[in-house]
Amino acid sequence: MQKWLVALAGTLAFSLSACQSTAAPPPAVNYPKISSQARQALSQAEADVNAAKAKHTLWTTTAAALQKAKRAAAKGENGLVIKESDLASQTAKLSLQQRRYPLIH
């Protein structure tokens, strides 16, 4: 009985360890076509989104805005980079604030 439990516990531990993400984070992308203001906005948005991800509060609209900003940066569209980066930053901050709300009113 004990050998069976030990074997079961080992199998479960091995199975659960396989579920963990082992993928390395993607390398930082350099967008040479965008202005320094757009680059700064995008950098701030990435930091804010990463903070929201770390607290498991990331909204889908936030992730979509960051992806739009990155696509615009790849095309060199400074205005759209700034607009979408600001939206991503604002909604990431709001999602972190929402985390402080009580679960039940």
Tell me what you see in this structure.
The chain has helices at 2-19, 36-54, 60-75, 78-98. Helix 2 (36-54) runs parallel beside helix 4 (78-98). The protein has a domain at 30-98. It is 70% helix and 0% strand. The protein is extended, with a radius of gyration of 20 Å. By secondary structure, it is mainly alpha-helical. The longest helix is centred in the last third of the chain and has 21 residues, at 78-98.
Topology:
Elements: H1 2-19, H2 36-54, H3 60-75, H4 78-98
The total of beta strands comes to: 0
Mean pLDDT: 82
Radius of gyration: 20 Å
Number of helices: 4
Q: Which structural class best describes the helix and strand composition?
A: mainly alpha
Poorly predicted residue ranges: 16-25
Terminal residue distance: 49 Å
Element order: H for helix, E for strand? HHHH
Please summarize the sheet with the most strands. Answer: none
Query: Which shape, going by the Cα principal axes?
Result: extended
Amount of beta strand:
under 5%
In percent, how helical is the residue content?
over 70%
What is this structure, in a nutshell?
The chain is mostly helical. The chain contains four helices and no strands.
Question: Can you give keywords for this protein?
Answer:
extended, mainly alpha, 105 residues, single chain
